[in-house]
Design brief:
With about 240 residues, this protein is of the alpha+beta class. Helix content is about 35%, strand content about 25%. The strands form 4 sheets. Strands 5-10-9-8 form a 4-stranded antiparallel β-sheet. A 3-stranded antiparallel β-sheet has the order 1-3-2. The longest helix has 27 residues.
Length: about 240
């Protein structure tokens, strides 16, 4: 998703000399780029208060498109880019702005939702380690898993335990499938993931409002600073 904000520069342009007006495209492009960079930083700075961030991937996913002075329409934008090129996962921040249903992708039928038990096990703010991610656990459930030998033949092997646990899929009383884990020395199983068909996402990003507010409050100052810098250089540039 991207956010574009309109700025009225009519009054500011009227106060320029004819020589200065020749440099409006450069000044406008430079000013727009500066304010969207500031808006980008504002959005990134608000993310920790809106989400639980376990790495910097989401913050890096807030990007900008600089303005170009030679474009027919001089504009810049702040946009999200959190798509995963390796897995094919779409940009998830769009749903965080507007809300809506999030469904499985890439041929999968369920979304794996981490449980409180898993979060407590690894730490609330810690990233989920590779061996405890859904794909890793689902490839070795019910104690045995299928694998291919060096000669290309299929064979059943005993599941390799992860942290002393064996994992399997089991339905809850309501019929919802879950990835369960049980220690070899324990009879009780613990839920690690709930496998849901879809997840309702609430709008929490508020990037549109943040960018709009920042640009409107800071454009005039950035515009004046840009012209002050240009006049100090005698307007000697291409």
């Amino acid at each position: 998703m991207s956010v574009r904000v309109k700025v009225d520069v009519t009054a500011a342009v009227q106060g320029l000399h004819e020589l200065e007006k020749q440099h409006i495209p450069f000044a406008l492009a430079a000013t727009l780029t500066k304010v969207v960079k500031g808006a980008q930083g504002e959005v990134q700075g608000q993310l920790p208060s809106r989400f639980t961030l376990r790495n910097d991937f989401t913050q890096k996913g807030i990007r900008i498109k600089p303005a170009e002075k030679k474009s027919a329409v001089i504009e810049a934008d702040v946009h999200t880019d959190t798509a995963n090129r390796k897995t094919g996962a779409p940009d998830y921040l769009g749903k965080q702005e507007d809300g809506g249903e999030r469904v499985a992708f890439g041929g999968h039928s369920h979304i794996a939702i981490p449980t409180k038990y898993l979060r407590q096990m690894i730490g609330e703010s810690s990233p989920i380690p590779a061996e405890l991610r859904p794909k890793a656990l689902l490839t070795a459930v019910n104690g045995r898993y299928a694998t291919r030998t060096r000669k290309g033949q299929m064979a059943l092997r005993n599941q390799v335990t992860v942290r002393g646990m064996v994992f399997f899929v089991q339905q809850s009383r309501s019929g919802t499938p879950m990835i369960m884990g049980r220690y070899w020395t324990d009879h009780e199983a613990y839920p690690f993931y709930i496998l849901a068909r879809s997840v309702r996402t609430k709008p929490r990003l508020a990037m549109d409002k943040t960018v709009e507010t920042y640009v409107q409050q800071n454009f005039q100052k950035a515009w004046d600073e840009q012209w002050s810098a240009m006049r100090a250089k005698g307007l000697r540039f291409r």
